[in-house]
Design goal:
five-stranded parallel β-sheet, 15% strand, 9 helices, Cys_Synth/Cystath_Beta-Synth, Rossmann fold, TrpB-like_PALP, Cysteine synthase, three-stranded parallel β-sheet, alpha/beta, 8 strands, TrpB-like_PALP_sf
Length: 273
């Protein structure tokens, strides 16, 4: 039996990233300039909250970021810097740090800021535990993507200590790009501090197949990293009560979906599931 935790009910970015962004920003006492590296949802969440709190926000995006993400960030009044980086790695993070320091801005740095991990340990994990208790269940396994590693590391620490829960991480296959998740070579901070039982590699095509499976079976439009989680679950089939973490919905990935469907050629191709 498996359940999915639908994090796209968070209001600002419609993603799990509302949690760490709010936790990182809540102690800023005066209006300021914020610079942040983001491939999508953190940028949207920071842009939305900056609009509410009166900050000026500049988002630094890697080259493969979906166009829809850029449009959404701009709607909130934030500035966009498109870079030539293919992914957010240590070099990209250092680049944004240096830009912020040179221009007198604040870089909250979701990749190293412990407020990221803490938002998920005291928020996401505890909330999930309460949700499972409400239906008389305990998590035997959790399948989650690895991005900054904030949410999967927090879930691992929280649930392994209390329930011995098996934790399965999901990353893109070598040479692949899936918005929201990254390979371990990019050096996610918190992954080395906890135990992950298994890491599953998924291609972008397989992640899209996961998106389509849920759309056509459950009527939910999930994002690409959520689709990757679905595929990883199918590859591993852990026993017992399993929780899949769906970080966001699919609406900002329509351009990417179109490419897989063959829309650019004016034809529709249904993926084989």
């Amino acid at each position: 039996m498996y359940f999915a935790k639908l994090e796209f009910f968070n209001p600002f970015s419609r993603s799990i990233k509302d949690r760490p962004v709010f936790n990182m920003m809540k102690d800023i006492r005066k209006r300021t300039r914020l610079y942040e590296a983001s491939s999508g949802n953190v940028g949207i969440a920071m842009a939305a909250l900056s609009a509410v709190l009166g900050h000026r926000f500049k988002a630094y995006l890697p080259k493969p970021t979906p166009k829809a993400t850029e449009v959404l960030i701009r709607i909130f009044g934030a500035e966009i810097v498109r870079t030539d980086f293919e992914t957010i790695d240590r070099a990209f993070v250092e680049f944004v740090k240096e830009e912020a320091a040179r221009e007198g801005a604040v870089n909250l740095n979701q990749f190293e800021n412990d407020a990221n991990f803490e938002a998920h340990y005291y928020g996401t994990a505890k909330e999930l535990e309460e949700q499972l208790k409400s239906i008389g269940k305990e998590a035997d396994a959790i399948v989650a993507g690895i991005g900054t590693s904030g949410h999967i590391a927090a879930l691992s620490k929280y649930f392994r200590e209390r329930y011995g829960t098996r934790i399965i991480g999901v990353v893109p296959a070598e040479g692949e790009s899936i918005p929201g998740i990254k390979r371990l070579e990019t050096g996610p901070k918190w992954i080395s501090e906890v135990e992950i039982d298994e890491v599953v590699e998924v291609t972008a095509k397989e992640a899209f197949e996961g998106v389509v499976k849920v759309a056509r079976g459950d009527g939910l439009l999930i994002g690409m990293s959520s689709g990757a989680v679905v595929k990883a679950y199918e590859m591993t089939r852990p026993e017992g009560t399993v929780v899949l973490i769906f970080p966001d919905d699919g609406f900002k990935y329509v351009e990417l979906f179109e490419k897989f469907l063959g829309g650019a050629q004016g034809r529709s191709v249904s993926p084989v599931l």
